[in-house]
User: Fold these one by one.
Assistant:
Number 1:
Amino acid sequence: MARTRMTLALRGPLVAVTAAALTFTASGVAHAAPAAKALADVAVDLSADPPVVGTGYGTTVTATVRNQGDRPARDLQLKITVPTGFELFGTSSSSALPCTPAAQVVTCTGTADLAAHATEYPITLSLEAMAPPGTDADFDASVTTTSRESDTSNNTATRTVQIVGVGTVQGNVWNDLNGDGQREPGEPPLNDISSIQVINPDDGDGSGVSNIFDGYYSFWDVRATRNIVRVTLNGSGPWTFTTPNVGDDATDSDISDVSETGSVIIGDSAEFNVTAGGVVTIDVGLVAKSQ
């Protein structure tokens, strides 16, 4: 029997549709799925200064609002709650998100839409610590918009700020004439160093001085946290560090050489904890460079 070839007439343009873009009714008829709608996505971050060193000291907390979505965010509102133990005495913001403080809450209301993928000028609160050392306080922030959002899990943020006490870090700088790493009678004090710093290794914050007097230095307002002492010498000068930690901790040197270049020689102590009202002694022994 001869085979009959059948042809189908196509009307209209040929359209290619991927399977992922199709939905099917119960009768098996395919329909193109609607495209996902672009939405806003506002988020807030909180940052803060390092731990406050005690009652009466100032600090700042900063809130940053951004729109991570693909549509503008309308009627933006940010609220920051200041915890008990801190007194607000100043707020910095832009005209696009002006702020009004009331009791322990700062409310900032947007004056215009926040464009897609845009960030508002940061809002900074200037504060004074009123609580005693040892207090941990949580700052909370929340942001809202009347626009539909793709994600609301990032609309809040919390930052814990510590109020810590202060202690003293002090020490002697001397010429270790016999190079044994021990400070002994007759070995003279030295002032010939570039700088001494006390640094928190967690955040790099700290204090520094540029001069040593009669071979003695003292920092009386060091935060009661982890710290190191960093000493910088002139790389072209006559001195380098003596061997550290070789004997009695009351008389040996506590600084180890960590880096040398043609211009500077840097030495660090081991990490140590400062306690509120406590005193830590970190001594620095120097020896003449070999000729």
Number 2:
Amino acid sequence: MSSPLQFQLRITASRELAQTLRADPSCASYAALREILRTHNAALKCQFDAFADYVSEAERQGTENYPLYQWTRQTIENPEKKAKYLQSFTVYVNGDEVYDKDVADALEIGLSKLVGANGIVRVSRFDTNPANNPQPPAS
């Protein structure tokens, strides 16, 4: 029986690697990472860029329909948080930001082998259980 929870992996990269990955999302300059992502039909998205995209979309579409708009805008405008999120990358699989446990397990094994090599600082795993995750701020 499969778990009702889904999972998400994120990698934290050194500042130098983060700049490279943001400039080249295909990871052409990092063959080992590119191969792991390709094997799992996965891609990286910088969390700062995802937040900035959310803010831009909210401003185009009307912020009243985006409950996290204010929090997200404050986050990307905070220099310390900006620095943190510029180095954090969400792993998407088949275009999805959360995926089944077996997919997360296999991907995590591969990515964990790269920690310490060429600028990958850590691999983090999150699940969709609200008890394990901070909840969005109240509007």
